[in-house]
Amino acid sequence: MTSLTPKRPADSVTEMTQILLPGDANALGAAFGGSVMGWIDICAAVCAQRHARQTVVTASMDDLHFHAPIKVGMAVTLRARVIAAFTTSMEIGVTVHSEHPVTGERQLTTSALLTFVALDKDGKKLPVPPLVFDTEAEKAAAADASERRSERLNRKDRGARWLSLVRS
Ligand SMILES: CC(C)(COP(=O)(O)OP(=O)(O)OC[C@H]1O[C@@H](n2cnc3c(N)ncnc32)[C@H](O)[C@@H]1OP(=O)(O)O)[C@@H](O)C(=O)NCCC(=O)NCCS
Fold it and tell me: Closest ligand 1 atom, CA of 58?
């Protein structure tokens, strides 16, 4: 049985560091987007699991923006934080920064929002602990996330229209 004692977003912040190697690059010597998305998914999943202390699955990834390319040889740092906890789902925000190995210059390259759902071993959805906020900024970000949740679920419903076109 998982504890549903409220937790602070700071308690599950997750960081992950990579080096961009040629196998993860495109023809321009910059990061292949799919590799970065895979790292984002892992970093965010660990963060969600730390918050829920349950196995989680990715329900959606959106607001994904590639702000700047990451060149081969750069260090890549990902940071994930719980923005909001709903009933069985959590919205996680992720930022990705590149770091030049010699100059140390850092740049925001990618950001994304992901929603994870906590499941038990039989695939049954499980409640997740609520968040307790230390700052007004955290509270405001969670309120934004509630709006995004509604819009996201609406978009999912409306997706039926374009899905049928693509599938046909
Ligand atoms: C994600 C999944 C568990 C949702 O199950 P479901 O029965 O369709 O979902 P429900 O309508 O009961 O909603 C359950 C929760 O998921 C959320 N949710 C469902 N679809 C969502 C979506 N596309 N985006 C964001 N949140 C979503 C709901 O808001 C709800 O959250 P809440 O309990 O906090 O209010 C299910 O669709 C699934 O297993 N998908 C495959 C997951 C997967 O394989 N991921 C990739 C590998 S990890």
Answer: 45
